[in-house]
């Protein structure tokens, strides 16, 4: 393909319900493997990454049933292996969550290197550093790596950079580790808080999620529960920006406005009318948009995934 021809569309108008967060769903499915009883997750989106994770985990014994409404029943009691297919587990970056969720139960996990978007590398140095501090050892091969630990023990861990993936992964490992783990310079993303909320419903003892210091007191067992995944803030932000790009008016429903505070602030900066209520946001173009400076950063800063839409 030598060129892509882009033509201006008609104004984007209407109301849309936002699905559950993909990033949170991937972490929640991995977290479900920690418990010793069935769990139900509500609002899981039916998308390719989720379908890959179903196929990946069904091969190790996780029983999965999904309804048309997005309700997913997960039974981890018959998981018999922690050797994850290296090709499938490399097809999306957050497969590494299964290291945190399975290591304490099985003592060894084999998994492919993280994949996902093909425009940048996916370093896992902070994951490795933290899990080593908890007693794990790593062996690296061409297509996959293994993590082993006779016993995971609590530790005080400072992340050299703020990382949502490592924060969630180490939090998963710490839930069934011996003793107390403290995570410093932890990510504050809603997906971290959602995962901690789900784990606490199952009987974990996690405090501080949503701040830069998270404390996890290890437990020996976890119980089943029902949990609803948070809405996808990135999809919601894209639709709100679509209203500005096309000079339209869009209402996103089933959202948590606080999760979109930086996006909303920038939309107001450029001249859009924004109306917020408890679980919906309406963005309307005024027809005159002005330039503004955007610098991406970790939550609660402006999300990297929204910068390209903003540039339009």
UniProtKB/TrEMBL annotation:
Compartments, record wording: Cytoplasm
EC main group: transferase
Family: Belongs to the EPSP synthase family. MurA subfamily.
NCBIfam families xrefs: PRK09369.1 (NF006873)
Cited InterPro entries: Enolpyruvate_Tfrase_dom, Enolpyruvate_Tfrase_sf, MurA_subfamily, RNA3'P_cycl/enolpyr_Trfase_a/b
Listed name of the protein: UDP-N-acetylglucosamine 1-carboxyvinyltransferase
Record PANTHER family: UDP-N-ACETYLGLUCOSAMINE 1-CARBOXYVINYLTRANSFERASE, UDP-N-ACETYLGLUCOSAMINE 1-CARBOXYVINYLTRANSFERASE 2
Keyword terms of this UniProt record: Cell cycle, Cell division, Cell shape, Cell wall biogenesis/degradation, Cytoplasm, Peptidoglycan synthesis, Pyruvate, Transferase
E.C. number(s) listed in UniProt: 2.5.1.7
Highest taxon in the source lineage: Bacteria
Catalytic function, reaction form: phosphoenolpyruvate + UDP-N-acetyl-alpha-D-glucosamine = UDP-N-acetyl-3-O-(1-carboxyvinyl)-alpha-D-glucosamine + phosphate
Pfam families the UniProt entry points to: EPSP_synthase
Pathway the protein acts in: Cell wall biogenesis; peptidoglycan biosynthesis
Enolpyruvate transferase domain span: 7-309
């Amino acid at each position: 393909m030598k060129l892509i021809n882009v033509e201006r569309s008609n104004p984007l108008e209407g109301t849309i319900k936002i699905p559950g967060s993909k990033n949170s769903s991937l972490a929640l499915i991995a977290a479900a493997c920690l418990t010793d009883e069935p769990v139900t997750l509500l609002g899981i989106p039916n998308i390719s990454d989720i379908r890959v994770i179903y196929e990946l985990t069904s091969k190790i014994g996780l029983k999965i049933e999904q309804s048309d409404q997005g309700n997913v029943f997960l039974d981890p009691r018959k998981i018999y292996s922690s050797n994850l297919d290296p090709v499938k587990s490399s097809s999306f970056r957050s497969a590494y969550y299964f290291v945190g969720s399975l290591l304490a139960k099985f003592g060894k996990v084999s998994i492919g290197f993280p994949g996902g978007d093909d425009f940048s590398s996916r370093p896992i140095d902070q994951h490795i550093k933290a899990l080593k501090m908890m007693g794990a050892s790593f062996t690296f091969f061409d297509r996959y790596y293994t993590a082993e630990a006779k016993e995971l023990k609590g530790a005080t861990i400072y992340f050299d950079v703020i990382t949502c993936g490592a924060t969630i992964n180490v939090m998963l490992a710490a839930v069934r580790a011996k003793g107390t783990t403290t995570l410093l310079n932890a990510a504050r993303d809603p997906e971290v808080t959602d995962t901690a909320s789900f784990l606490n419903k199952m009987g974990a003892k996690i405090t501080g999620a949503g701040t830069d210091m998270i404390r996890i007191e290890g437990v020996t067992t976890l119980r089943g529960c029902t949990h609803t995944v948070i809405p996808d803030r990135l999809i919601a932000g894209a639709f709100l920006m679509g209203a500005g790009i096309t000079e339209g008016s869009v209402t996103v429903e089933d959202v948590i406005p606080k999760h979109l505070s930086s996006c909303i602030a920038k939309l107001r900066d450029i001249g859009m009318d924004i109306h917020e209520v408890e679980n919906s946001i309406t963005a309307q173009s005024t027809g005159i948009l002005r330039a503004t400076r955007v610098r991406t950063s970790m939550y609660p800063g402006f999300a990297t995934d929204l910068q390209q839409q903003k540039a339009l």
